[in-house]
Design a protein that fits this description.
Helix content is 33%, strand content 23%. It is of the alpha+beta class and 493 residues long.
Length: 493
């Protein structure tokens, strides 16, 4: 996670949607755990409570933030369950007190987290509460090879690729040689590891410029030897490691090889689903992803996915959910990434990856549906009721554009409270009457690394994109103002 700028603050992403859904909509109580310490936490909580334009009053007493002064790259669960850290013990005591108090009041208390975690499952059992994600024993179903197998069994096409993972450099070269024999001149090597997020386990190899030297008519041993010389030229999505480092990880994770599809009109839609406590498979949302780093790393999304392929996207996503359920996934979030390429007048969807966890789209979707007070329709849209027209109610569709990576070095030193004030005092702020506008999230890293997130809700894609552009311009103007003092006013224990 250290490879991703500001990733230590990822536990903060779901704060807004949790407050809006649990506290404002459901009138429940929320204990939210974060590390590192959330900056301007009171201002952030007040901002989310006020987004619906209601007098929240006592609602503030139903939100408690507990934070650890730990900006390290460990998982949040490791920080909270650290037996050697007195501050972690205080956090655990606060959690237990919250659970005991709400259970005595007869409340349904749940431990909500981002992805399967054996330590959190044990912790939930100690607390006597259920978790909300797939069981950690099913994590291998999120590997690249298992995903390809599930796609095929569910009748979802996949790019050409490996029938099995390889865990040595020679084996990898043999697999690439097989792809070359089949006529492929560009491949992706993917570590067979469900923890390699944001495409950081991928290596890209374009063979067009070296194809003549490979000698496709050479015997297998010769072709493999030539590819062993070529493979170190692969472009690593993780720019902070070298090829030798990447190769060493293969012995632990293995890797699959896939056709690298580079069509000009290529899109990257994603499906988000959930398996309920009653073992029902539900479609939650669809998005077109915004990707960076050679089209491998998620930085944002647009809701909903294009209508040109959304029906197929939902169909395929539900098939995968049923396949996961059949393999023992009893509950929780899952996501399915696809490639969409145009074939004549239509689109072909190819299965890319299965994420057995929440995805980077969850916080934006939860925020918007909480604000709108609605769920996606069967065809994957968000619809709200508007003013009466011609004697009857009108329905209005809402779309959004979201980003976790509104980033510029000039923003470093800004505070979340400054962002909140600037947006709420501008015409960009979310308007509950119009059900459009800008909502901020993951604001703490702006002080340290000049990065924050937002979701921009509009009546159509043009309005949502315009709001995002104007937000960036607003942030630019804030950055141009003179600032005093330390950019990050917190201790690092």
């Amino acid at each position: 996670m250290r490879r991703l700028t500001g990733a230590a603050y990822f536990p903060e992403r779901l704060l807004g949607s949790a407050i809006i859904d649990t506290v404002c909509r459901s009138e429940g109580d929320l204990l939210y755990v974060a590390a590192p310490r959330m900056l301007d936490a009171d201002e952030q909580v007040g901002y989310y409570l006020g987004l619906l334009g209601a007098d929240c009053g006592e609602a503030r007493d139903r939100v408690r933030i507990v934070s650890l002064d730990d900006a390290g790259s460990r998982w949040l669960s490791e920080k909270v369950l650290d037996a050697e850290n007195p501050q972690a013990a205080q956090v655990r005591a606060a959690i237990r007190a919250f659970v005991s108090d709400r259970q005595r009041a007869g409340a349904d208390v749940r431990l909500c987290y981002f992805e399967p975690s054996a330590p959190l499952e044990r912790y939930a059992r100690e607390l006597g509460v259920p978790g909300d994600q797939p069981h950690s024993s099913r994590i291998p179903l999120g590997s690249k090879h298992a995903g390809r197998r599930l796609f095929t069994e569910a009748g979802v096409p996949v790019p050409a690729g490996s029938p099995a993972p390889r865990d040595t450099l020679d084996g990898l070269a043999e697999e690439v040689a097989r792809m070359v024999r089949e006529g492929h001149r560009a491949v992706i090597v993917k570590r067979d590891d469900p923890t390699s997020g944001a495409g950081l386990g991928n290596a890209l190899l374009d063979l067009d410029d070296v194809a003549p030297s490979l000698g496709a008519d050479a015997d297998d041993d010769t072709l493999v030897r030539r590819l062993l010389d070529v493979l170190p030229r692969a472009t690593l999505v993780d720019t902070k490691i070298a090829w030798d480092d990447y190769v060493r990880t293969l012995e632990r994770t293995g890797a699959v090889v896939e056709e690298w599809i580079q069509d000009d009109a290529l899109c990257s839609p994603s499906f988000q689903g959930r398996i309920t406590d009653a073992a029902e498979v539900e479609a939650v949302s669809t998005h077109d992803q915004v990707l960076a780093n050679h089209g491998q790393s998620y930085v944002g999304c647009r809701f909903p996915a294009s209508a040109e392929y959304r029906h197929t996207l939902i169909d395929y996503g539900l098939r995968i959910g049923r396949a996961l359920r059949d393999r023992g996934v009893e509950r929780g979030d899952y996501g399915v990434d696809f490639l969409a390429r145009r074939t004549g007048d239509s689109w072909q969807l190819l299965g890319c990856e299965i994420n057995l966890r929440s995805t980077g789209t969850k916080h934006a979707f939860g925020m918007v549906t909480g604000l709108l007070g609605t769920r996606a329709t069967q065809d994957g849209r968000l619809v709200v009721s508007g003013p009466a027209s011609n004697g009857g109610p009108r329905e209005h569709e809402r779309v959004y554009e979201a980003s976790d990576s509104i980033m510029d070095p000039r923003y470093t030193g800004l505070r979340p409270a400054q962002l909140i004030r600037a947006v709420t005092r501008s015409p960009l702020g979310y308007d509950p009457e119009r059900a459009t506008g800008v909502v901020l999230h993951m604001m703490s890293p702006v002080a340290e690394v000049g990065k924050f997130g937002a979701v921009c809700v509009g009546a159509d894609r043009t309005e949502a994109a315009s709001l995002m552009q104007r937000l960036r311009e607003l942030a630019d103007s804030l950055a141009a103002e003179p600032r005093q003092g330390s950019p990050v006013g917190r201790s690092r224990r």
